[in-house]
Structure formats: C-alpha cells, structure tokens
Amino acid sequence: MKKFVVGLVLGSLITGTVGATAQYILNPITYDITVNGKSLKDEEYPMLNLNGTTYLSLRKTTEAVGATLFWNEATKTAELTTTQNSSSVNVSSSGSFSMKSEFFVLREEPIMYVIHDNEYYIEISAFSQYLTADASNCYIKIPGKPELTLPKEQGSDKLKTGETVIEYLNFTYVRLADLEFTTEIKDNVLWLK
Predict the structure, then answer these.
(1) d(Cα 99, Cα 111) in Å, to the nearest integer?
(2) For every one of its 193 residues, what pLDDT tens digit does the chain have, with 9 covering 90 and above?
(3) Residue 70 and residue 33 share a domain
(4) Which residues, at least 6 apart from 184, have a Cβ–Cβ distance to it below 8 Å?
(5) Using CA atoms, how far apart are residues 159 and 193, in angstroms rounded to an integer?
(6) Alpha-carbon gap, residue 39 to 49, rounded angstroms
(7) Are residue 43 and residue 84 in the same domain, yes or no?
(8) For residue 53, what are the domain limits?
(9) DSSP string covering 88-136, please?
(10) What distance lies between CA 15 and its chain's CA centroid?
C-alpha cells in the first residue's frame, strides 16, 4: 500500500508539472499578406501563426490600411482611427512620437504626426497651451518663436487647409517648418529645436 501511495503522489506531481509547463508557440507564417497589393513582410515585425490564427504587428497593419495609431497614456489604450480621410492629402507615414524640446514644455503623452511631402506635420492639440483664437484666426505663440497665424474657414472654427495646415483622418495637423522648428529623432523621441 505504501508503494501505491508513493506512486500515486509521484504520478500526480509529474502530471501536474507537465500540464503547468504548456507554452504557446508562435511560428513565422509561410505565406504573404498584402494590403492594396503591398506586402506586409518585415523582418522587424514578423507575421506569426498560433494554432491557425495569424498575428500581425498593430503598427505595421495600421500604417498599411492608412489608419492612425495613437497611444493614449492617460487611459493606457492603443487607439486606432479608421475613419475615411475626406481630404486629398497624400501621407507617406503616420504614427505617434514622444516629442520634447529644450526650449518649451510639451504634453507628456505621445503626439500624433504625419509626413506629407517629406515634411513633418504635428497634430495641433500638441500645442494646446500655446493656442489662442479670435473669430477669424487661430494663433500659435511658442516662446522664442514667431507667432503663427492660422486662418479659419469663414463662419466656422475649422482651420483653412493648405500648405501649413492639413486634415488627415479627421485630425488637424500643422507643419513644423512653419513654426520654424528643426527636428532630430533620437532614442525614438522627436526633438524640436
């Protein structure tokens, strides 16, 4: 009887240990995935399979479908915006950056950007503490920089779009060059100078 109890205990321990060490194994997929004819293959963001389900990089997929991905630090949420772009703006890249400057204060959470015609445009709310407005214009006045005047559409609070201001996926972006900034990306942070 003693041997039976020892065998039962050992058998239970071995069975419990084997069950507790089960792991999920992701394997690289052997096929391609395309969006509008463009492959999503990227060594930095591999496409993986687990039990017949394919897993893709959220950032890579978001960029491929022309959506915007934004990390909301306050709610610890990845926000994906897929609304149709009502403008004819061609954007070569979009996403969010932590943005810093040695000369003035910016909000802590990452800031949405787009690249249009090889220039950075930053979502206007990044400069909210430096914004003022009247009936005709919106003004951005950053310490040490000339004031930027952004005309509004007649009878509206919406800004006129053009070279300085663009609308993309229902967000308003301002060209950094018009704020007389130079930029440097260092350690995944966009530094404004």
Answers:
(1) 7
(2) 455 444 444 455 455 544 455 577 888 888 888 776 677 888 888 888 888 888 888 877 777 777 777 787 878 888 777 655 445 678 877 878 888 887 777 777 788 888 888 888 999 988 888 999 999 999 999 888 899 999 999 888 889 999 999 988 778 999 999 998 888 888 878 888 8
(3) no
(4) 190, 191, 193
(5) 25
(6) 17
(7) no
(8) 23-65
(9) ----SEEEEEEEEESSS---SS-EEEEEETTEEEEEGGGGGGGEEE-SS
(10) 45
Q: Are 79 and 123 contained in the same domain?
A: yes
Tokens representing residue 43 in the block: 């060594």
pTM of the model: 0.56
**CA-to-CA distance for 10 and 72, rounded, in angstroms?**
50
Give 144: exposed, middle or buried? Use CB within 10 Å, 0-12, 13-18, 19+: exposed
Read off the tokens for 151.
Answer: 């005309």
Both 58 and 77 in a single domain? no
- Number of domains the chain contains: 2
The answer on 58 and 92 residing in a single domain is no
- Please, are residues 164 and 178 in contact by the beta-carbon 8 Å criterion? yes
Distance CA 20, CA 81 (A): 39
Same domain for 187 and 106: yes
